[in-house]
Request: fold
Amino acid sequence: MKPYSAWKQLIRLIMPSSLFNQVAPLLRLILKFVYSGGKHQCPCCESNLRKFADDSEICPVCGSGKRQRLQWLVLDRKFTFFDSDADVLDIAPMQYFQDYCLQHSSLKYLSADLNSELAMDKIDLTAAPYPDCSFDFILCSHVLEHIPDDRAAMMEMYRLLRPAGIALIQVPLQDQPTYEDVSITNPLQRTTHFGQADHVRIYGSDITQRLRNVGFSVISETCADLFPLSELEYFSLDEKDIIFTAKKPENDQINSG
Ligand SMILES: [Zn+2]
Reply:
């Protein structure tokens, strides 16, 4: 484990959650000072930094990783998301993002997850307890690779979105077609085959077809498509990172109520 993440995990291990939550703002202030500089900026917490932590991965102030910074920038620039009053369902939330949406935006924000203690609702994304057409946005970052029946999860996201609603999707990707094998259930074997003990597949770019199969129109964009080189460096983004914008058609006839 890299140094910043290791320290953070150690502090969380020895400090009760309630105490950690109390001292977190002070820790953030200290880290903001220690890392301050003009070379980089975190788009999420707007900290000006001389560097990011852990080999340019993590914002030392808000904890955002490269994929969270990509998601934030796409939401902000493409959808002026944070200035809207959209209904949002965030699957597997991050603390900083959740706090920001609840405290500093007019969004109608709801987070949900099967396991996360941070999530506001405990749900199974393959059978979510919400009515049809409840949300304008669903944020689903690094979730689908954990779900055995990903088609059911995709169908649920489609059902839950209003016509023209957007599911913003990120997954770990490989250059090969999607690889999955339901007979592999042992955590060690899953790590070997899929890259993590609780992953059930590793996607290829054909995930776009899976999303289209349930009705979405899909655009996939890399960081290099979206941002000039200077911004990739400034925000510390990975040029190859891909984000999928899955849109429910405006004229959807099945779930237009
Ligand atoms: Zn940050």
Observations:
- The chain has two domains: 1-64, 65-247.
- The chain has ten helices and eleven strands.
- The CA atoms of residues 26 and 32 lie 10 Å apart.
- The first helix runs from residue 3 to 14.
